[in-house]
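@channel sequence for tomorrow's demo:
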Amino acid sequence: MSKIKLDLHPVFNRGALIDAELERVMDEAEQKRIKTVEIIPGKGSGQLKKRVLKFLERKDIKARYHRIDKDASNHGRIFVYFRF
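structure tokens (generated this afternoon):
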């Protein structure tokens, strides 16, 4: 099973770029029919993870994926699962 990994460390403090990268990875997963996207907001203060989760909760975005999972063993990772 293939997956896409998006590491947000390089853009952690650039708001518009964070959303653009999240949109891009969602589009890529849909186009290539990849079932899993791993998003790495990192551990830090938790603000970036909150931003990612808020993005994923948007009604227009939520309609695009099946479910999300927060990694229980590493709170710096979020998995987004698609159903094709």
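heads up for whoever presents: The chain has one domain: 3-81.
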